[in-house]
Amino acid sequence: MDSRRYLKMLGVPQLFGSGRTKEILDINPTVIPFREEANEVSVFVYDYDESDLKEFHSTNVDECLHFKTSNRLSWINIDGLRKGEVEKVCEHYGVHPLLVEDILSINQRPKMDEVEGVMFCLLNMLYFNDVKKTVETEQISIVLGKEFVLSFQEDASRDVFDPLRNKLKISKSQIRQRSADYLLYAMLDLIVDNYFLVMEKLGEQIEYLEEDVVRRSNTRTLARINQLRKEQIILKRNISPVRDLISSIIRSESDLLEDSTTKYFKDVYDHIVQAYDLSENYRDIMMSMQDLYISNVNLKMNEVMKVMAIVTSVLAPATVIGGIFGMNFDVIPYSHHQWGFYFAVGAMLIIPMWMLLAFRRRGWF
Description:
There is one protein chain. By secondary structure, this protein is an alpha+beta fold. The chain folds into two domains: 3-296, Beta Polymerase, domain 2, CATH 3.30.460; 304-361, Up-down Bundle (Methane Monooxygenase Hydroxylase, Chain G, domain 1), CATH 1.20.58. Helices cover 55% and strands 15% of the residues. Strand 4 and strand 5 form a beta hairpin. The longest helix has 64 residues, at 262-325. Mean pLDDT is 86; it is low at 6-13.
């Protein structure tokens, strides 16, 4: 019988979260992943120029295809992925089939590709689950083309682009005055900035845990340390490749990128480097916290052993005296003396008291 099922039958909680470990390690790029088709698809289109903005929402991807010839900049965001509909949109906008496979994949490493006139960025948006105290990921694929940006998201209920949508509604905003590569920058900037919000909440959990480790080090504290280290693995796994992604965009000589936009991508690069350094700091703190936990456990064990050693030492004289006067011999000094018993009991009390005083003066307790 599986040990996890056995513990579940006994009602024993899984303190160390082996299921979470399986989620982190269960990534094999040689195996074709299975993606469930989305129950519904939502298409949001923002078609704009300097003077006008047209917002469009539909559940049918066919209705967004005509925006390719609108002669304005179009941001088409598709929430919920279905293989047939993703292939239809990508074929219409000239996205290579290899990139379509990446869009439909799961657990992909963040990356940037340039294929047949389009720039493709794949990375993860991060969220912090306040209930489970875990870091959650959502894969987003962004395709930059001439006068259009396509974005494909898995979850229609959340993203980090609300500030961008609000800026698009302002006619004199910078994003309305710039080209499609600036829209790509704005999206990547919001995704990276949201990493700091997730790391801030994770940092709060680390701070609370540090207080628990100092005050009380027990099995649940160790389990919490183990859990937070797993969340940091997810955090670093998603942040580190994004640094290479932004760096590739900066070094790119694609015609889709204007020279004036490069400085904005450099700003995003600075942010992601800072996020990476911060994740390394979190890792160092967790390693120090684990060492602190081990030190506290050893200190408690030493205190217990010290008390037991003192008790044993204090009781040793009484044991020796009682053993001597309890020997089965005919002649034992003071065995028949009228004050012999009181002498023995007095020695059993005075010697331990003297020993305790000597231990105290030496600073042993």
